C-alpha cells in the first residue's frame, strides 16, 4: 500500500476552497500529491458544481513555469475556477506595470473572476458573470456581464473587449450602467475609461491616445 505525503491541504470556505501547498518539499512531490488528491482522496468534493479556488504556495519560490504546472493540474478538474494563486516570491520579482497576465475560459452567471494586476482574458463573460482586476482588463471575446477594473482605486485603469455589451462597467469607484440604446449600436472593439471622473467609451483604435503607455505593452 502506498502512503501519500500530505503536501497539499484543502480547506473549505463559505465561498470556495483554499489549496495550501507545502513550501518545504520538492516541487515534483508537491505536484504528485496535488494530482493524487484531485484524482483520488478528494474526488468527491471536487466534482459537481463550479467551485472557486484560491491557491497559496507559502514561502516557496516558484518559477512561472511551475506556476503554470500547478494551474494546468487544477484545470484538469473542469469544475474548479481558479480565482487566485498567491505567489509572493514570484510577484516580488515581477513588479512591472506593463505586465499582462493571460487567462482563458468562460465566466458564467454567478461566477466572479478576480485578478491582481493587468489581465488579458481569452473568452466570454456571460450575463450574471463578473470579472474584476486591480489593473486593466482586456477581453478577447464578448463582455456581456459585469467588469470592474482598478478595484483598488486606480482611476487610470481601462476595460476593453472585442464585443462590449456589459450589464455594468466599473472603474475604481465610478459605476456606469449602459443605456438601453447600447443594444442597437455597434459594440465591437471598444474600451471604457475615465475622463474627468466620468465613464467614456471609445474605439480600441484610439486607446493609445488615452493611455500612451500601452503602445509598448508586453505580455508574460
TrEMBL record:
High-level lineage: Bacteria, Bacillati, Bacillota, Bacilli, Bacillales
UniProt keywords, alphabetically: Cell cycle, Cell division, Septation
Start and end residues of each Septum site-determining protein MinC N-terminal domain: 8-85
Pfam families per the UniProt record, alphabetical: MinC_C (PF03775), MinC_N_1 (PF22642)
Subunit composition and interactions: Interacts with MinD and FtsZ.
Residue ranges annotated for the Septum formation inhibitor MinC C-terminal domain, each copy included: 103-201
The protein, known as: Probable septum site-determining protein MinC
GO terms for biological process, alphabetical: cell morphogenesis; division septum assembly; regulation of cell septum assembly
Protein's job: Cell division inhibitor that blocks the formation of polar Z ring septums. Rapidly oscillates between the poles of the cell to destabilize FtsZ filaments that have formed before they mature into polar Z rings. Prevents FtsZ polymerization.
Residue ranges crossing the lipid bilayer per the database entry: none
Family: Belongs to the MinC family.
UniProt organism field: Paenibacillus zeisoli
Amino acid at each position: 500500500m502506498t502512503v501519500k505525503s500530505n503536501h497539499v491541504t484543502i480547506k473549505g470556505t463559505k465561498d470556495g476552497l483554499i489549496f495550501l501547498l507545502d513550501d518545504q518539499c520538492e516541487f515534483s512531490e508537491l505536484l504528485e500529491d496535488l494530482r493524487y488528491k484531485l484524482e483520488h482522496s478528494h474526488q468527491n468534493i471536487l466534482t459537481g458544481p463550479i467551485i472557486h479556488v484560491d491557491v497559496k504556495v507559502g514561502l516557496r519560490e516558484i518559477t512561472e513555469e511551475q506556476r503554470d504546472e500547478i494551474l494546468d493540474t487544477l484545470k484538469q478538474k473542469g469544475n474548479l475556477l481558479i480565482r487566485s494563486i498567491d505567489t509572493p516570491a514570484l510577484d516580488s520579482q515581477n513588479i512591472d506595470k506593463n505586465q499582462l497576465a493571460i487567462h482563458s475560459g468562460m465566466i458564467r452567471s454567478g461566477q466572479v473572476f478576480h485578478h491582481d494586476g493587468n489581465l488579458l482574458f481569452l473568452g466570454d463573460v456571460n450575463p450574471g458573470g463578473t470579472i474584476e482586476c486591480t489593473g486593466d482588463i482586456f477581453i478577447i471575446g464578448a463582455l456581456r456581464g459585469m467588469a470592474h477594473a482598478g478595484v483598488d482605486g486606480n482611476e487610470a485603469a481601462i476595460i476593453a473587449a472585442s464585443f462590449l455589451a456589459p450589464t455594468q462597467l466599473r472603474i475604481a469607484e465610478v459605476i456606469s450602467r449602459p443605456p438601453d440604446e447600447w443594444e442597437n449600436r455597434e459594440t465591437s472593439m471598444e474600451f471604457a475609461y475615465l475622463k474627468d471622473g466620468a465613464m467614456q467609451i471609445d474605439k480600441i483604435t484610439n486607446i493609445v491616445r488615452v493611455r500612451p503607455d500601452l503602445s509598448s505593452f508586453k505580455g508574460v
